[in-house]
Structure formats: C-alpha cells, structure tokens
Amino acid sequence: MGEIATLRCVTCGVEYDPTRTEYTCPSCGPRRGTLEVLYDYDRLRRTLHPSSFAETGLPSMWRYEALLPIEDRRFIQPLRVGWTPLYAFPELARELRLAALHVKDDGQNPTASYKDRASSIVVIKAQEKRKGVVTCASTGNAASSLAGFAASTALETVIFVPERAPEAKVAQLLVYGARVFLVRGSYDVAYDLAAEAATAFGWYNRSAAVNPYLVEGKKTGALEIAEQLAWNPPHVVLVGVGDGSVVSGLCKGFDELVRLGWLEHAPRVIGVQAEGSAAIARASAAYRGRAVAIEDGEARTVADSICVGKPRDIVKAVTYVARNGGEFVTVSDAEILDAIVTLARRTGVFAEPAGAASFAGLRKLAAAGTLEGKTAAVVVSGNGLKDVASPRAIIGAPIVVEPSLKEIERHL
Ligand SMILES: Cc1ncc(COP(=O)(O)O)c(C=O)c1O
Ligand SMILES: [Zn+2]
C-alpha cells in the first residue's frame, strides 16, 4: 500500500491532510485547485526496486499497489484491471519511419476502457470512506467503468451522461445496474449537475479531476509501458485528451519512475485532441510557466469520449505536460475515423474514436517528419465496440447474397 504523504494543490501548492480533505483546494476552487497525491519517495526508493512489481506475480495494475493510495486491500475487486497488452508492430513502424511502434490496448480492460484503472481505485476509496453511493458525470466510459467496478460491492451507482452518449455505453450502465440520468445537454452540463447532486445528497464523486485518486489509477498505464519494455520506455507516448486526466496520469507515472531512479528520462507525453474540442491544446500553446489561461467553449467531435468544452483537469494537464517536455497536437474528425480503420486493418486492434486519436496524432507527427528514427507507443484508451456507428460511414457495407456459390462468384 502506498502511504499518502500529502495532497497538494496544483495551483497554490498548499498541502492538505488526506484524512480531512476529500476533493479540491478550498482557496483555489474545484477547477484550479485540483490536488495531487504525493508519497514519501525517499522511503519508497529505499523499500522498492524495479523487480518488486514482477515479484507480486499479479497480472494486473495491482502489481503497483506500493505506489497506489489505498489503505484496505480487502476492497480490491476481483476484476482484473490493467496489465493490458503492449504489442509491437515493426512493419507499420518502418512505414511511419519510426524505430519502433507499440500499441497499448486498454480496450481489453473489464469494461473496455482505460477508465477502469481509475474506477477501481475510487470504488475502493468509497468503501474505505464508508460511502453508500458513488456518482459520476461522464461522456460514457468513466461511468460504465464506475458501474462495472461497483457492481461486486454494496455501493449504489448514480450516473449522469449527456443525452447523446453512444448506445453501447448507456447499455453497459444499465446492464451493470446503475441508476442512469441522461442529461439534456452536453457533458459539461451533466458534470455540473453531478457535482451539485453529490453535494446535496452526500454521494462520493468520481467525476474527472475533482477526485484526487483518479490520476493515481491513470498513472499505472505509464508504469506498465516502462516495465513491459524492461525499463527502456519509448521516446514518445501518445494518448487522446478530453478533460486531461489520463494524460496527466501518464506524466505523473513516468515522473515517479524518474524520481525513484528507475528511468533516466521520462518519455515525452503527447496529448492528442480533436480539432473541435481542443481547449487544453490552446491553453498549452499559450502557457508561459505561470497561471494556466482557461478559455472554455462549445466542443464538437465524432470522438464522444474527448468531446469536452470545459476540461476539468486543464491545470494538471498543461503543467504536467510542460514539465514533462511533451506537447499537445490536434487532429480532425476525418483523421480520427481514418485512424480507426487503419489501426484495425494493420494491427487488429479496434479502437473507439477517442482511442484512435492517439494513432491519428502519431501519423500526423510522423508525416511532418518530427518523429523520424524515434520509438513510440500509442495508448488505445477505449474499445471500438463501444461505438460502432462512427466508423460505419467510411467502411463500406457487407454484400447481401442468396445462399448460392454462383452469386458469390459474381461478386468476386
Ligand atoms: C476512450 C477514452 N480516451 C481518452 C479519454 C480522455 O481522458 P481525459 O478525459 O482524462 O482526458 C477518455 C475519457 O473519457 C476516454 O474515454
Ligand atoms: Zn490551492
């Protein structure tokens, strides 16, 4: 168990006692005052070594329990979360003029997205805190993941998703037994409603950014990429960005490995946003090392999971990526859809639109020549079966035939 030393505000730096503070810094507010979980790294450096994780024998993110903020391991769910495959595709790497290309398939998590890493932690925290109800606003994946991970516990789940969330994600919620509110409005509107309801009814809030423990789960993808490559991580790691928590988690994970002395440098973390939902990329371009300028707007993209006009983890995302030496890039919806199909046809990994954004960003940077000779990993953060409608427009249709060989021949 990773004993938390403190919770520190990302804006003012004030430290809070984790036994007394649940969500965000009261002085800086819920948007600028997100908290980061810090551990006693000197102690961890003395007690852990790179082989400690393999020695647990656990094929899940729980191999990193020593770096995770839980107190009572009895609450760890039976579902296997994390330790997802990292595949190498040398042929595709050569075509993109990379030295190596790895695909981290997080669509293979229990509810089929990267969000399971965070939900697993929060469901444990909710039980440690003796909560009865957990709630969450979500574009879909965080919610279905919360519902799935709470399913084997006594917790009730109340979910707020935008009315236009893809059908498969809503179906997942209902199957897992969550109480589901389809909110008339965008994800940004659903988010505020969930926060109000959590305060009014005393529910534990798993919505992005306000809950400091989410990023801890989300950092485990970075720990895995490093360990799966024998502590020689790639030059760059790319991931799709909506609220900014996953990209922050990857930065934090690599940063902790550097602090512990197991990596010399962190890989550059590259956040990929959709052109129509790029508030974090804009704030990052304007960032000069002082306050993060926040400009919200309407968001529109085919990648529903990263369709966020008011990103809640913008301060962490911009400051962590700047410290990491990474960057943000934007891609069009057409590039995202094309990335789904190319990735599926060349690797067999089927990504939902937000999950393929990472590969779209990689292709864009590779085409510009900035990654020549480098090693890269793309995180596929959600499974393609979550949203089969989006790629349909560009994949053609099957051929309907009478059951006769002659007719088949006619089509060949
Ligand atoms: C599949 C997928 N990819 C990427 C993201 C982006 O994560 P974040 O909102 O933390 O930036 C999400 C968030 O919902 C997601 O579901
Ligand atoms: Zn503060």
Walk me through the structure.
By secondary structure, this protein is α/β, with parallel strands linked by helices. It has a domain at 86-113 and 214-394: 3-Layer(aba) Sandwich (Rossmann fold). 39% of the residues lie in helices and 16% in strands. It is built from 17 helices and 13 strands. The protein has helices spanning 29-32, 41-47, 52-55, 90-95, 116-128, 141-150, 167-175, 187-201, 214-218, 220-228, 245-259, 279-286, 314-324, 333-347, 353-367, 389-395, 405-411; strands at residues 4-9, 15-16, 35-39, 86-88, 100-105, 133-137, 156-162, 179-183, 204-205, 236-240, 268-274, 327-331, 375-380. The strands form three sheets. Strands 4-5-13-10-11-12 form a six-stranded mixed beta sheet, sandwiched between helices. β10, α11 (245-259) and β11 (268-274) form a beta-alpha-beta unit. It is globular and about 75 Å long. The protein starts with a strand and ends with a helix. Zinc ion (ZN) binds next to loops.
Instruction: Classify the secondary structure makeup into a structural class.
Output: alpha/beta
Biggest sheet: strands, sense, closure? 6 strands, mixed
Order of helices and strands: EEHEHHEHEHEHEHEHEHHEHEHHEHHEHH
| Strand ordering within the main sheet | 4-5-13-10-11-12
Provide the gyration radius in Å.
21 Å
Q: Name the beta content range.
A: 15-25%
**N-to-C span:** 60 Å
Assign a percent range to the helix content: 25-40%
